[in-house]
Description:
The complex is a heterodimer. Chain A is an alpha+beta fold. Chain A is extended. The longest helix of chain B is centred in the middle third of the chain and has 14 residues, at 78-91. The relative contact order of chain B is 0.13. Chain B folds into two domains: 13-91; 94-168, CATH 2.40.50. The chains are: A alpha+beta, B mainly beta.
Amino acid sequence: MAKDQNKPGPISRTEDVVLDPIQLAGDLLVLLRAHLEPDEEVTAGAESDMVLPGTFGQSWLVGTTRRILTLTGPPTKLVVSASLPLKNVITLNSRDGLGSSLLEAATPEGVIVLLRYTEAKEPGIDAAVDHLKSLLPELNREQEEFYGGEAFEHALRQKTVPCPKCSKPMRRWMTVCPDCVDKRELIGRLLQRSKQYWKPITYTFLLTAFLRFCAIYPAVLQQQLVDEVLQLGRGTQYQPQLQLLIKLVVILAVVRVAQAIASGVQQFVMTWLGEKVTNDLRLDIYTHLQRLGVSYYDQKETGWIMDRVTGDTATLQSFMTDTLQRTVINVVTLVVIAVMMLQENVPLAILALLPAPVVSVMSRYFMKRTHAIWHWAWRRRSRMFALLSNVLPGVRVVKAFVQEDREFERFERQSLHYMDARVQAARVFAGFSRSTQIIMALSTLAIWGYGGYLVLQQQAGIQQTGVSVGVLVMFIALVAQFYSPLQELTNMSQQIQQAATSGQRVFEVLDTRPDMEDDENAIQLEKIDGSVEFDNVTFGYDERRPVLKGITFKVEPGEMVGLVGPSGAGKSTTVNLICRFYDVSGGSVKVDGHDVRDVRLSSLRRQIGIVLQEPFLFHGTIAENIAYGVPDAPMELIIRAAKAANAHDFILRFPDAYDTMVGERGTRLSGGERQRISIARAILKDPRILIMDEATSSVDTETEALIRGAIDRLVAGRTTFAIAHRLSTLQNATKLIVLEKGRLAEMGTHQELLSRPDGLFRRLVDIQKELADVVGVGG
Amino acid sequence: MSELPAHPSDLRLLDPTKTTLVLDDSRRLQVQIGIEERIGPVRALRSLPLTQPERYISIQDDEGVEIGVIQDMRELDSQSRAALQEELDYYYLKAKVTRILRVEARHGLITWQLETHLGPRTVHVRDRQHIRSLADGRTILTDIHEGKYEIPPMAQLDEKSVHWLSVEV
Lengths: 779, 169
């Protein structure tokens, strides 16, 4: 197989055998050109030994910078059998059979079979597919990222909406698809955000302008110094020349000192402004994140979100406070210097200005090239953060399963990927900036050469309108001052590019519409009685796969309801709907007769208390955690709640008692202690509706007895929904709702349901009894 | 307020006007509630030893069962208050820092050279989680042996102490 010199590098550093993504013969690559657009490049390709639907023969998979192609026929008569734009591909998947495999592409419209091949061609096709996956657009990559190994299946069920601009499918929470993001608009939006800081920005702008003046003005003084002071000839006198010399040196000194002072002030103001902008932006994102519904967090990894709050805001800070101003000042400086040079000597000025358009064209090309690389690097950084935030909290599991090495390898892979992306960006940038440096150096040399020639001509009397030594010195000084902002401007293209990328990511969060906002006419719920009604409720996290189907029941105030059923029956989903963490797909959930969609969310949730199987405590003291729902609760009530939750005694045994810091997520407390703190938190909140999701399932029997005592006190007088696998713990329930596969299977009291010999509840109780007997005999 | 609670889990606040605390001959605390209820020896535990050390003092019998809670020990009569204070001072050893001489982070420990009302002391603190700033400006150090050191608000410290404290907090 012939190797192409322009091929992309190896895909992975961690694989033992790394295949080139282009496994195509050189002559085939030439023939392929006839089927490609002029600016379309082949990035991956492999040959198959089968032709769809399933005969032996030659076919090819080709990935280009734009699309995925499959071709059939002999190389001289290639026929394109499929052409799929990359932006329409969510992911690629190999479906293995015995002896052959199918390559399928998931698209928003469905699955498309691209290729069939035998095991003999598998390595080449796998390498090409891996590379193609890395090229899939941001939107599709993200879909794949958060679905992990099940990307393909999830892609088929993906909920998408058409982009309002281009009608291409996009994730439903986005306002515009990444393809339609207008970078100018993005920069415009960033500028819009800067408006509120116009005062400090004006100060720094003026200071920067003054600094530029300080940088340019000495060139004029130098010209005066050379032409008027340092050339004593006939007709000039020593004393006035000396005085002029002193005057010019003093002015130069004053300019330099002023420059140093202004520079210090500017540095401080810009740092202050930068910190202020970042802080405000961070707070905006965080506030918005708090408004977003639970479903948003279901779909995004913590690390992904954290990276936007921290990493991207820092990038935008430098853009809004530094890059932006320097861009304006540099452009103004370039114009001023150009005018000064043109006034002095036109041919020399043209020589000096020649590199500007060249550098500008190069800069445009560079921006285009680096955009993709920066996106690539950003995505890899997000993936690295996502991995960290996923693995670190589960460090006990990692150690228990002795998976440290594997986790290290996973992290190393992500870290290397990120490093590779940054190195590649640096490589491109280094090539670009050195090229511009060479061009500028050549231009300076040209000025020395041609300017020197003009000076010699004037001094030799050949040409009277030549150039004086002073003018040449001034030109050299001005050229240095001209190239510096020019170079800065070209470097800024990288910063602007980064800012645009970060801006896109930040605005993606800020533009996400909260899926659950109060309606204008939403009712403010006062203290409720606590009746709950499900009226023909249907719901699915994915609309095509309903988790609850036509559920109807009514619970009176003060009732204790046990939710029973096998795993996956929809018990937790039922309580999620009462809290309105999600909206139903069909039917309605009513609290005190009001549809939960018609009431203010805060007034609803304020009256609901939740005790979860894995209670979540925040970093802070025990007292702060108990008072989380009622931050201004007096200490007496906090202690009363802790006593009711059987927590007071163990709390007092800590040296710092209620002042004890619980550690991150409450790690300094045992599971039972955390649970009792969470019950105290619920008691203090005094909710009208209480939800307990497996509140006692993860603690030992003795602790369970303590917790049960606490729960008995907690449920008194409240409508309670309790989910428990240990059915015996629901004996006090006034009503049991038995769910099976998302449907209401049975409903009644403990006794009523037990009396149905063929009932599901009876069956579940019998199974648990048998298990208990086995454990009893065995134990 | 001093009646028995209806349920063992209920909070029993002890009426300061009807509660007397004394130390017996062996300097152990006894509590007298009303006329008829005298229990001893008892121990006193602070509910909020760092933030509100004089409030919500739990009085427990020698088996650790709570008899009641004194909401504010400053409302007790002076003798009871003195007896309770002595018991608490004994149980909660907390040195009050008067000067910070030096702070050094080495080998994963933060070493504080302090002058306290109990004398000079070199204190090793594991990490910054064991340096807690309280809302009223005080800072509490917990050393590797769980010893507590209370640093007053910065306004009450000399310049050098403020310097060392501001580096760490």
